[in-house]
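hi! just following up on the protien thing from before. the input was this:
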Amino acid sequence: MPMGRTYGYIRVISEDIDVEAQTYTLREMQVMERDIFIDFVDGQDGGGAALQYERLLKKLKEKDLLYMQSLDMLGDGYTEIGRQWRRLTKEKKVDVAVLDMPSLDTRRGRALIGDVVLSMLEYASDAEWAMRKEKQRAGIERAKSRGVRFGRPELPWPENFDQAYQMWKRKEIKGEEAARLCHISRALFYRRAGMVREMEENR
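and the predicted 3d structure came back as:
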């Protein structure tokens, strides 16, 4: 079976990443200098454009091999990493070897390992989303307990609302006209009319 070409990818998102050391490691893995793609990403702009990565994707062909130091070379967050992993292993059908996790080497079985990694990333993404929603809910509850109100501020009740409501209740005017008299939307009139009617019934 003919072998494909071997590539390397480095994504630099902080000064902690030693580009020279990673480049040396890729050369040790028999990656040619011309086949090493490096993106210097500005983390302050939400990740920035990974232009070299997109160039690399255009070159990759089935049976090629791609080395990278770690999975976070593929993006920020589990969702994006999973999306790029799918592009590489499912759409491009290339092999991927993650150097800091030797077990993540699809040459040992692309379909099996690829699916396991995707399942892991999807699970982690769902768990991350659920945790974020829970923190948001807890934060809202704490804010409400301090008297913070959310959503649009409630519109004041028109001074003539009771008069318009009583006319509507006696079927002297329709809801649309009552809302127009109060200078509010018909939906808001009906909602407040329902509140008043409920208070009347509970007296």
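The mean pLDDT is 79.
The first helix runs from residue 19 to 28.
cheers
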